[in-house]
Amino acid sequence: MSAKIIDGKKVAKLTREEVRQDVEDWVKDGNRAPFLQVVLVGTNPASDVYVGAKTRACKEVGIQTDTKRLPDTISAKELKSTIHKLNNDDSVDGILVQLPLPNHLSAHDVIEAIDYRKDVDGFHPMNVGRLTVGEPSFRSCTPAGIMELFKHYSIPSKSKHAVIVGASNIVGRPISILLNKEEGEGKATTTVCHKYTKDLTRHTISADILVVAAGQPNLIKGEMVKEGCVVVDVGINRVADETKEKGYTLVGDCHFESVKEKASWITPVPGGVGPMTVAMLMKNTLLAAKKSIYPE
Ligand code: NDP
Asked: Fewer CB within 10 A of the end CB, N or C, for the chain?
């Protein structure tokens, strides 16, 4: 078997077009355009690439955006004070602090400083908590994007065994909650693996749906995957490659060539989950502007 490709680039384009139309209607109704404030601390080349992609998407869909660039020497107090100002600024609908932060800053503290009603990344404990108990919330963009891909391709999760490799607060844990939900989408039985999981293959081989978000290039190989499994590769890893102008190539957490021979569906890297993450951020920013999740 050779897997069918889950084309995140295509679905993201459709999603952005939907958002663009909604933004246009929102503005036609006499509202100001949604505004996303990005906060970028320090100089991380990968963060620059991600912020660039988010800025381009905003322009495409008609969302106003600005990037506040702050030095990597900024103190936690100064950064939180910047965030508090943005929280109190009525012209700002969404606030996104690009991660990772320099080591002296705690991402948890900084995320908690964001007003949860402007937390379009869906990382604030209020949003994560509400997601867990099934209340309306900003959903973390990557997991929300994965659910959108399943919906677009009519890939069912009900009663399936979904195995998630990676237990981060921004990908692994929230996707396990969405896939496990008993209402609406989800309804899968979930297993979450992490660094301390013994015999990873014992778990991955039993997966009907395998979501891999470990940040480990080629961690999952064909022999670790059941025939017909749906594989979502979230990983984005830069691997040195002298044949490339940039000096690196992007690979996922799965060994694509061998895994695609076993899977029924697979997301490529790049062009799979990444573009969906950005598209869902656009959706969340519009929801924030409309105050759809947290009405006043
Ligand atoms: P984190 O480093 O925060 O989390 C990685 C998780 O994987 C941790 O739970 C870690 O375990 C677990 N892990 C690490 N090694 C192994 C292993 N050998 N076996 C099993 N579990 C393991 O990363 P993120 O969740 O932020 O990101 C994961 C990957 O996804 C990265 O490559 C990142 O670049 C990419 N990413 C892609 C996005 C996209 O839009 N496509 C968006 C966000 C991230 P433990 O908890 O025990 O340390």
From this structure: C
Task: Please state, in angstroms and rounded to a whole number, the distance separating the CA atoms of residues 170 and 188.
Answer: 20
Task: Indicate which residue's Cα is closest to atom 14 of ligand 1.
Answer: 214
- Select the CATH number that applies to the domain covering 141-274 from these four: 3.10.580.10, 3.10.100.10, 3.40.50.720, 3.40.50.280: 3.40.50.720
Active-site residue 7, yes or no? no
What is the distance in A from the centroid of ligand 1 to the CA of 31? 39
Amino acid at 113: A
Residue spans of the domains in the chain: they are 30-115, 141-274
Residues 253-266: b if buried by 16+ CB within 10 A, e if exposed: bbbbebbbebbbbb
30-115: CATH topology is Rossmann fold (3.40.50)
In terms of Cβ atoms closer than 10 Å to its own Cβ (0-12, 13-18, 19+), residue 182 is exposed
Is 22 among the residues known to form the active site?
A: no
Catalytic residue among 22, 37, 54, 233: 54
Q: What is the mean pLDDT of the segment spanning 158-186?
A: 95
pLDDT attached to residue 113: 98
CA of residue 167 to ligand 1 center, whole Å = 7
pLDDT at 165: 99
pLDDT of residue 15: 98
Give the residue whose CA is nearest to atom 42 of ligand 1: 142
Going by C-alpha positions, the residue among 196, 192, 142 that lies closest to residue 163 is: 192
**Hey, what amino acid is at 280?**
M
- Our answer to whether residue 241 is catalytic in this structure is no
Q: How far apart are CA 1 and CA 17, in angstroms?
A: 33
Nearest CA to ligand 1 atom 39: 274
How many whole angstroms from its chain centre is CA 194? 18
